[in-house]
Structure to design on (424 residues):
DNA sequence: AGTTGTGTTGTCCCAAGGGACAATAGGAAC
DNA sequence: GTTCCTATTGTCCCTTGGGACAACACAACT
């Protein structure tokens, strides 16, 4: 179970040759004759995996796949394989987040190195993504009102100020605050703030500005 | 004052031609015949700037410069210019954080685009770096003891627990805590935690582990 | 009509945080 | 030796936060 590799290439003989090579190396392999097919059956990311993608194919190009995958929130690392490697394109691909960009034919060592890095990266990304998803789920469980209180609390506002700003009594804020802590699954303000920070909530400006 | 450009290239005629082109475009330009000279006079980063670097030079190569600069904490974006552009090298350079990788001769539009992006990026990096430096300076002003208290406080420990763990009375912790807030320049626990988060303190494990 | 979710507010009480004012003790620097 | 920094601890008192228990208003859904 060292990982799953998705190969996308319109050249059938290349696909199967590559598949054999990688299976020999101990990977689980799936092949796709077109990018569309990959996008249609979005690979699950429950185990380390990566995508080997031919850059130039009929239909969707490799770069387009990169964009689409990113849009869908996929964290699958991409390794481009192409017969027409040019610098311009490789730079664009890497800047867009691809793990690597290799020219066909690709040496086994180089390929396996890249795959190893991609798998490691995917492992790390998956963990981060999982934690982030959990945080976002907690956040989504808040009612709008609770969400407002949450934001003000983690900005260091005290109940009294929050009550004033939201036009409620301090007691009410206390109640909301209590439920926020509960729903977010934390026991201390410190944890709540830490969570807010990781959710990127503390960077946004909140239309306010004044107040100590 | 749209920015400062540092050109490093061993080819004198190329240097001066490029310098003229960029000055015409409104940039302030400095040239260096060797990478070592650039490293010897580390460019100040008080205004937006970037480096145009020939990849292949006698002495230090462009890639080595990239490493050295990173080691010294420079945030200056690098744009590689090279006559021998190959995919392998370009991928490595971009993965190492270079802003762009262009082949000589380079078209004006392409070059100015890259420079524009580099300047924008440098502006952003500088702001971040400045903030981070300020945070680190605050942190460094803490005594070892205060630092300990700081770490426990932002992890949500209450004074009583901290006192127990550090073998002091609650009153003492209160005193340290007070000075920590003062030195870090914050008024609320929320701000303190936020600062700790940005300092990367909340990710490290603290040898403890138990406790709620 | 009854249930559920959300927002609201109350009282009582205790724990935790924080300011004010003050003092002791040891080590390092001058 | 005197001074400065750091660490330590005290008391008094007020503010904040939070738990327990309870209740009311309103809208949406069944």
């Amino acid at each position: 179970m060292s990982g799953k590799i998705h190969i996308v290439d319109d050249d059938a003989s290349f696909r199967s040759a590559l598949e054999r090579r990688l299976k020999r190396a101990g990977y689980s392999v799936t092949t796709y004759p077109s990018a569309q097919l990959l996008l249609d059956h979005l690979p699950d990311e429950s185990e380390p995996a990566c995508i080997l993608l031919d850059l130039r194919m009929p239909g969707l190009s490799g770069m387009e796949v990169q964009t689409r995958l990113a849009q869908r929130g996929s964290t699958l690392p991409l390794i481009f394989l192409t017969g027409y490697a040019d610098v311009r394109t490789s730079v664009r691909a890497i800047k867009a987040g691809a793990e690597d960009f290799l020219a066909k034919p690709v040496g086994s060592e180089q390929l396996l190195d890249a795959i190893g890095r991609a798998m490691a990266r995917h492992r790390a990304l998956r963990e981060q993504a999982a934690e982030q998803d959990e945080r976002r789920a907690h956040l989504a469980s808040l009612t709008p009102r609770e969400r407002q209180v949450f934001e003000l609390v983690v900005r260091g506002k005290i109940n009294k100020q929050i009550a004033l700003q939201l036009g409620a009594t301090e007691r009410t804020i206390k109640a909301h605050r209590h439920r926020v802590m509960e729903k977010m699954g934390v026991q201390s303000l410190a944890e709540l703030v830490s969570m807010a920070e990781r959710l990127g909530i503390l960077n946004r400006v909140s239309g306010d500005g004044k107040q100590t």
Observations:
- Residues 207-212 of chain B have pLDDT under 50 and may be disordered.
